[in-house]
Amino acid sequence: MHCPFCQHADTRVVDSRVSDDGASVRRRRACEACGERFSTVETIDLKLPAIIKSDQRREPFDARKLRAGFDRALQKRPVAEEDVERAVHAVVHAVRMSGERELPARRVGELVMEQLRKLDHVGYVRFASVYRRFEDVADFREELDRLERELPGEAQLPLLEDAPAAAARGPERPRRR
Q1: Residue 166: is its pLDDT beyond 60?
Q2: What's the whole-number mean pLDDT along residues 102-126?
Q3: Phi then psi for 86, rounded to 5 degrees?
Q4: How would you classify residue 81: left for phi > 0, otherwise alpha for psi between -120 and 50, otherwise beta?
Q5: Is the pTM of this model over 0.90?
Q6: What is the mean pLDDT of the chain?
Q7: Which of 10, 48, 130, 152 could form a cystine bridge with 61, CB 3.0-4.6 A?
């Protein structure tokens, strides 16, 4: 490693520490020529597959875009940040473990929907509505029916309550304490 101060080619490692998540190593180095100290961070550089978009364009996999998709779907939803991170990591891991050099964007979308279905049903339907290009209310109802069939008795609140019963009660008002 070259010294960033004097460009000397020989530096020595003074101290090494593994990061909290175990994904990187921080090394404290000293230059043999000028004596200056500096830190480096070493991470694993794994090549993720290229993503084949629906118009056949190819672009590199971008975990930031993936996270942004989760954030949009789960906006203003009561989902813990740690749970979202775990879901993003699960998708990245599945993409990495696919062993493919190229992966269709549809497959990544399915992986995202699988994770969102576990996290939050509303976030799942939001993502599915964009991902599957819902055209009208019937598309939403069909997806909601499919979700209710696949996940009977789940702990989450129902997505749609009985419409006549809700109409009879009238609009909900916030309760004062």
Answers
A1: no
A2: 90
A3: -60, -40
A4: alpha
A5: no
A6: 83
A7: 48
**Of 20-24, 36-40, 129-133, which gets the smallest average pLDDT?**
129-133
Query: Residue 175 CB: number of other CB atoms within 10 A?
Result: 5
Indicate the DSSP class of residue 126.
Answer: H
Q: Structural domain tally of the chain?
A: 2
Q: Are residues 136 and 75 in the same domain?
A: yes
3-class SS of residue 93:
helix
Same domain for 72 and 39: no
Task: Name the nearest CA neighbour of 70 among 85, 59, 92, 54.
Answer: 85
Is there a domain that residue 174 lies in? no
The boundaries of the domain holding residue 21 are 11-43
The answer to whether 98 and 49 are in contact (CB under 8 A) is yes
The structure tokens 């672009």 sit at 59
Rounded alpha-carbon distances, angstroms, from residue 79 to 17, 72, 124: 32, 12, 12
What is d(CA 142, CA 139) in angstroms, rounded to the nearest whole number? 5
For residue 90, pLDDT over 80 is answered with yes
C-alpha span between 24 and 46 (Å, rounded)? 13
Task: Give the Cβ contact number of residue 140 at 10 Å.
Answer: 16
